[in-house]
């Protein structure tokens, strides 16, 4: 029970990686405040966690809304007295190259994937600086290596990577006891990926899947629990000597 007595806020917890993180940290004793823009989805996740004996609460949140960040963190502090962990997980992925990405798609991607991480990190620092804590920012291998058809996504996740280091150094210099680290998932078999494959013609889906598997040294896509376990480590006291660090979980993809 590595997270006993810890209050954890996870954004984008209504499905996929965020759902897996919420379930895993709750299993380890955390009180999980799970937020998502899809309130019905996150309510379902929370109900399932509570039914299995865990502790969780659902919150509606648009992570691009600055005022909502302040109100949510204030509400968590009012209910529980402290916030120990923030996982900035919410994100979107829009395809488009440097040539054909629209400005609207570029700006929307930065708002959700990067601006929201800044807002969440700033609010978490405010809440944690008197007692310490852990901030985990979900980046991507796309924040380390480039892909031609994800220009806006590459930029946003690269921004999360270097912003995390800046925030980590600031918190260390101020003596806040707040660790700030980033996680970089590779190709993970989430419901979003499964639905995308299911929506393709069978032959096209098989070719796409084969191309992805061939690019991963361990010859398999990861599962959401693989990322959740990495987040658990960074959220727990076991990673007390880590800050400004990149935890890459990608089956060896970026090792080439």
Radius of gyration: 18 Å
Shape: globular
Q: Which residues sit in consecutive blocks of at least 5 with pLDDT less than 50?
A: none
By secondary-structure content and strand pairing, the structural class works out as alpha/beta
Order of helices and strands: EHEHEHEHEHEHHHE
Largest sheet: 7 strands, parallel
Strand content: 5-15%
Q: How many strand elements?
A: 7
Structure description:
- There is one protein chain.
- The chain has 256 residues and is α/β, with parallel strands linked by helices.
- 48% of the residues lie in helices and 15% in strands.
- It has eight helices and seven strands.
- The protein has a seven-stranded parallel sheet with strand order 3-2-1-4-5-6-7, with helices on both faces.
- Strand 2, helix 2 (39-51) and strand 3 form a beta-alpha-beta unit.
- Helix 1 (16-27) packs across helix 8 and helix 4 (103-128) runs parallel beside helix 5 (151-174).
- It is globular, with a radius of gyration of 18 Å.
- The model has no long low-confidence stretch (mean pLDDT 96).
């Amino acid at each position: 029970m590595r997270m006993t007595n810890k209050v954890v806020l996870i954004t984008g917890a209504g499905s996929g990686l965020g759902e897996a993180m919420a379930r895993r940290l709750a299993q380890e004793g955390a009180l999980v405040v799970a937020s998502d823009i899809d309130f019905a989805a996150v309510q379902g996740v929370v109900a399932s966690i509570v039914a299995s004996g865990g502790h969780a609460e659902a919150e509606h949140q648009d992570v691009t809304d600055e005022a909502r960040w302040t109100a949510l963190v204030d509400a968590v502090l009012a209910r529980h007295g402290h916030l120990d962990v923030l996982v900035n997980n919410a994100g979107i992925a829009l395809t488009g190259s440097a040539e054909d990405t629209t400005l609207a798609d570029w700006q929307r991607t930065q708002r959700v994937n990067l601006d929201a991480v800044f807002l969440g990190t700033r609010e978490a620092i405010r809440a944690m600086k008197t007692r310490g804590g852990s901030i985990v920012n979900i980046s991507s291998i796309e924040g380390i290596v480039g892909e031609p058809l994800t220009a806006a996504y590459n930029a946003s996740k690269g921004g999360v990577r270097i912003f995390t280091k800046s925030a980590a150094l600031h918190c260390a210099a101020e003596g806040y006891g707040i660790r700030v680290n980033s996680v970089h998932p590779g190709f993970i078999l989430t419901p979003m990926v499964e639905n995308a494959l299911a929506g393709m013609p069978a032959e096209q889906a098989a070719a796409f899947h084969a191309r992805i598997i061939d690019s991963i040294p361990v010859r398999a896509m990861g599962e959401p629990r693989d990322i959740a376990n990495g987040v658990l480590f960074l959220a727990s006291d076991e990673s007390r000597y880590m800050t400004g660090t990149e935890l890459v979980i990608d089956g060896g993809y970026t090792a080439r």
